[in-house]
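PROTEIN–LIGAND DATA SHEET

This sheet pairs a single protein chain with one bound small molecule, pyridoxal-5'-phosphate, given as SMILES. Inputs appear in the order they were entered. The predicted three-dimensional arrangement of chain and ligand is reported afterwards as a token string under its own label.
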Amino acid sequence: MDINNTKLIHNLHTIQHRIHTAALKANRKAEDITLIAVSKFHSANAVQNVMHAGQYVFGENRMQEAMQKFKPLKELHPQLKLHIIGPLQTNKVGDAVSLADSIQTLDRSKLLKALLQACEKQGRNPDLLIQINTGHEPQKAGIPPEEADRFIKECQRCFGAHIKGVMAIPPEHEDPRIHFKLLRSIAEHNGLAEISMGMSHDFEQAIEEGATMIRVGTAIFGARPHTLPA
Ligand SMILES: *Cc1c(COP(=O)(O)O)cnc(C)c1O
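PREDICTION REPORTED AS:
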């Protein structure tokens, strides 16, 4: 199911090279762009192979899968960083706060309150990003862009500097640049430094538009199988 190790490392190096090229073109430093390797549906073994090639930042979008895979991995490799990039249910917030270094999908007051409780209880504060539904897609999580400023302020009142930035997933069949520009403007006028945008098919455009974090799955790990790893 996993692609072979040589191919995995080749893919990682290709992505690193493309990040450098895109950064150069945009007059930016490649070091200012964090690559998040999105390992959903791929095995702990594939994660370790990528890690041994020097990639320590990963993203998962289902809490249960993240716990199974990354709890043991993080015990072995404390330098691993995990970003939660999928919709978070309030009943999974305890796990998310205990495991994640960053939660990118804060998008509603109910979740904000649950996170606040869990952080106080555990004495642990992952970085938080606010997800914006830039395309107003009903099936997608995220706060609508016109409510973003108000919600960001509400989050900042609770979490202060732990609110690091914003994240979005543009609609599939639209020019992503419009969405990248909107996300960047929301970050900038709220004084937030981190802008998480860009995936396998559009991360170079995202870098040109100011992404500080890109989330790349398929272009590193290959196509995702349709079932969870055993
Ligand atoms: C799966 C996923 C990605 C990675 O997508 P690819 O197209 O495989 O690079 C990025 N962001 C989120 C939120 C995802 O769920």
